[in-house]
C-alpha cells in the first residue's frame, strides 16, 4: 500500500512474464522442436515465479500465469509431445500441493462441494450464492443489495459478481 494507491507485485509479474515469453518464443521459434528450447525455456522463465508464488501462497495468480504461459507455448507451435511433458509435470506438482498443503485441499473441496464447511472455507461461496439468489432475475436495484454490507468478504474485489448479481439480477 503506497498510500494513494495499492500495488500488488504479482500483477507486474504477470505482464513481465508475458513479455519475456513472447520475446523468447519469437527469437527461438525455429528451435522449439528441440525440448531444450521449448520445455527448457518454458521452465527457465517459470521456475522462480512459481517458487515465489507457492511460498506466499498465491495459487490463483500462479494458475493464471501457468495457463497463460501454456497457451503461449501452444501458440508458439511447440510440439505436442513437449506440451504433454509439461502437463504431466503440472499434474504431479498440483497433486503434491494438494496432498501437502491443507489450504489447497480446502479450496478443492469447496469447489467440488460448496456445502462441506459453511462457516469456514465455504463461507464466501455460500454468501455469494445467497447474494445471487436474493437478486433473482431482475435484482434488488442499484445500491439496494444487503449482502455486501456484512456478509460478503471483499465485496469490491473477490465478490463483485455476487454484488452485481444481487443488485441487477441474474
Unreliable segments (pLDDT under 50, ≥5 consecutive)?
A: none
What's the total number of strands?
0
What's the pLDDT, averaged over the residues?
A: 82
Largest sheet: none
**First and last CA, distance:** 34 Å
Percent of residues in β-strands: under 5%
Helical proportion? 55-70%
- Spell the H/E element sequence: HHHHHHHH
Q: What structural class should be given to the helix and strand makeup?
A: mainly alpha
- Distinct helical segment count: 8
Gyration radius from CA atoms, angstroms: 20 Å
Bulk shape: elongated
Task: Provide a compact summary of the structure.
This protein has 170 residues and is mostly helical. The protein contains 8 helices and no strands.
From the structure above, extract its key features.
single chain, 170 residues, mainly alpha, 8 helices, 0% strand
